[in-house]
Amino acid sequence: MNAVANPRRERVDAARNRVKILAAAASIVAAHGVEGLSMADVAAAAGVGVGTLYRRFGDRSGLAYALIDEREREFQEAFIEGPPPLGPGAGALERMRAFLHALTDRTVEQLDLLLMAETASPFARFGGAYAAYHAHLSMLIGQVEPEADGYVLADALLAPLAAPLLAHRMRECGVTPERVKSGLDDLVAGFA
Question: Residues in domain HTH tetR-type (predicted)?
Fold first, then answer.
């Protein structure tokens, strides 16, 4: 059965619980940071059982991804069908630069949640969002430099935005988001 043609519908009570859980988790993160996000506290604040949380989200990293999800959907919509230069209608180099700048801002905005989510397992970073970013950059690289290995080069452009590396560079080394963007601009300029 095609999941897209026939999406699994969420029960009304499950949808209501999801909204309560995510609101409680967001409130806890806003008040206490990601370090204060415990499954027991979220369950208590949402008025649901801890088992419900574990069944729904798996663990804290699953809950972190759920909190990240709405912002991620907005970001993907912007680079897939939004206005140029991030969306279609601008040249490939301009789109690459706009995409990497927007991704830097988006990563910094939710850095602690991404850090928790991306370090949950060795390959946690390489889920759906990363695959979308990678495909987008590979396509743009192919438009600019058809002979280049866009598959590998997309990873090189995304590497500086890995949450653990970005957090380390910003917090331990004093690197600013503007400096990261400038370095990415230098990499993109190599395609011209």
Answer: 15-75
